[in-house]
Structure formats: structure tokens, C-alpha cells
Amino acid sequence: MDLTLVQEWRDGKMRRFQDYLVREEPLEIRVGKHPLTVTMRTPGNDLDLAAGFLFTEGLIQRREDIRILKHAESNKPSETGNVVFIEVARNVKLDLEHTHRTFFAASSCGICGKASIDSVRLRGLRPPKQRLHLDPEVLCSMPDALRSAQVVFGRTGGLHAAGLFDARGQLVVQREDVGRHNAVDKVIGWALLNGRLPLSEYVLLVSGRGGFEIVQKAIAGGVPIVASVSAPSSLAVRLAREMGLILVGFLRGKRFVVYSGENRMSLAAVDRAG
């Protein structure tokens, strides 16, 4: 977080004070000698982000595909702490179509640099295994737990969050970032590096909307349930239904909307007619 002097107008009065700002800096991910991509992110958990990005983009399949993962050394002040170096195993053959994805990705968009519509959809996605039995009341408790864990958001109000929960509603890991897709990559990357994949017994909760790329990344990680506090997109719903993912939106208070997989959730239907 950074501090800056601001002026606030309220009820006809002005006041000056120091306010917190979310840090946003570019992160370059290099595979060997080749720059792969640049994404605007909130510094922190960069190795998780890089590993998660490679995995959810389908460039690697397992933890063993990464030989070296570290912050690159540089004499340039602008690159210090902002470049992650990855060396993949010798048997890993990177898809050139993906490795040419050297572009500037805005923090709100993780697919802006795709060269074609066909390249947006990952190959080899598999339906997540449905091993999770979840109480709706437990699901409703998750947004408050995630919000309580958002230390930086509490001071700045400018970050997205992604959290991984177990069937009891316990928060296993959470990550914050200016980019919602980065927050998810940080969670998936953490799971990859810690031998937790596939995430077939966990719920992924995101603080923003449930967009297509969020759903696709979750499926790549084997997550069976994705929930968001806002609305999903039409393409996200279509992908979730195709792949058998339980997709929940508008998870707020004691209410949520199920857009996909309702037949796999134990929801009590109450007839209030008459």
C-alpha cells in the first residue's frame, strides 16, 4: 500500500488527509530467455501468480513441469521485484501459439491479448469431480469470512479477492489483487506449488463478478463450485453448464442464485404458495 495526500468534500466542508492507495505495478513473466506476458498486478505472491498463470493457461500440467521459479535479478530499478523467471522441465513443450502471447494485459482483463476467438477457450478442459457436499448455510457464511481476511481492501477499498473454502466453510487460502483473474491465478498457483491440485473438495469464492475466465481457471484447477458476490456473465454460465460446474452468483447475506448445477446442490425447496 502507498500513502497519498487527498482532499475530501463532505457536506460543504473540505478536509485534507493521508489516504491509502492500492499498489499496482507490472509483472513480467519470463520462460527461459523469452518474455511470456506482462500483467498489471498488486505486488505480493508473485510466484503463486506466475505458476497459476502457466497452469490455468494450459502451458504446464503439473508441479514437476517447473524446474526453477524465482524473482529474476536485474540492475534496472523498474524491474526489481517485477520480473519472475521460470524454467520448465526439459520434457515440457510449450505451445507456440500460447508462448507468443507477449502483450500488455490490463488489470481488469486477462484475455485482452488473445489473437483469435478460438484461442480464448482452453483445450483439454475436464469436468471437475463432484466430491463436495455443501450446506447452503455454510455457503452463505463465506463472503463475510473472505471480507474479514482482506486486510488491504479494508484500508483501500480497491482490490478484488479470491478465496478457497472447504466444506465446513473454513477459509484455506485467500489472495488479493487489482485484477480479479490475478487473484484467482494466485490461489490456483498456491495450490499447484503446495500439491493441492485438483481442488475437487473446495469452493472458490470471488469478490467481484463471475466472468468467463474466472470459471475457466476454476475448471482448470478442478474446482467443483464457484461462487461470486455479483453476477456471472452469459459465457461463464454457458461454460459452467457445459462442464458440469456449480456456479453461484449474488451470494449476499442469506441469498444466492444458482446458474448451473442446481441438481447437484442440496437445496430445500419451500412452497410458499397459498
Q: Top keywords for this entry?
A:
274 residues; 25% helix; alpha/beta; Cytidine Deaminase, domain 2; flat; 6-stranded mixed beta sheet; Ubiquitin-like (UB roll)
Could you characterize what this model shows?
With 274 residues, the chain is α/β, with parallel strands linked by helices. The chain folds into two domains: 25-120, Ubiquitin-like (UB roll) (Roll), CATH 3.10.20.10; 136-264, Cytidine Deaminase, domain 2. Helices cover 25% and strands 30% of the residues. The protein has seven helices and 13 strands. The strands form three sheets. Strands 9-8-10-11-12-13 form a six-stranded mixed β-sheet, with helices on both faces. Strands 5-6-3-4-7 form a five-stranded mixed β-sheet, with helices on one face. Helix 6 links the parallel strand 10 and strand 11. The termini are far apart.
Mean of the pLDDT scores? 84
How many structural domains does the protein architecture include?
2
Strand content: 25-35%
Any low-confidence stretches, pLDDT <50, length ≥5? 101-108, 113-117, 268-274
Q: How far apart are the first and last residues' alpha carbons, in Å?
A: 55 Å
Q: Give the helix tally.
A: 7
> How many strand segments?
13
Biggest β-sheet description:
6 strands, mixed
Order of the strands making up the biggest sheet: 9-8-10-11-12-13
Helix content: 10-25%
CATH class of the largest domain: Alpha Beta
Please give the radius of gyration in angstroms: 20 Å
Shape designation: flat
Order of helices and strands: EEEEHEEHEHHEEHEHEHEE
CATH architecture of the largest domain: 3-Layer(aba) Sandwich
